[in-house]
Amino acid sequence: SARKTLPKVPSKRYKFKAGTVALREIRRYQKGHELLLLKLPFSRLVRELAVYYKPDYL
């Protein structure tokens, strides 16, 4: 006699408590060494802010 197999039921996704995933992400990015912002756009922003706060600087 052939064994009867139960149809696969998709398992319910586990729900983490609020903020758990966010804290995990924060730790991941703090450990990492890759740049999250590109250098050129960031330097442009810094220059723009420098001119805004001290116009005779550049």
TrEMBL record:
It is found in: Chromosome. GO terms for molecular function: DNA binding; protein heterodimerization activity; structural constituent of chromatin. One of its GO terms (cellular component) is nucleosome. InterPro entries: H2A/H2B/H3, Histone-fold, Histone_H3/CENP-A. Transmembrane segments: none annotated. Residues 19-50 form the Core Histone H2A/H2B/H3 domain. Keywords: Chromosome, DNA-binding, Nucleosome core. The keyword Glycosyltransferase does not apply. The keyword Cell membrane does not apply. Belongs to the histone H3 family. This is Core Histone H2A/H2B/H3 domain-containing protein. It comes from Pyrenophora teres f. teres (strain 0-1) (Barley net blotch fungus).
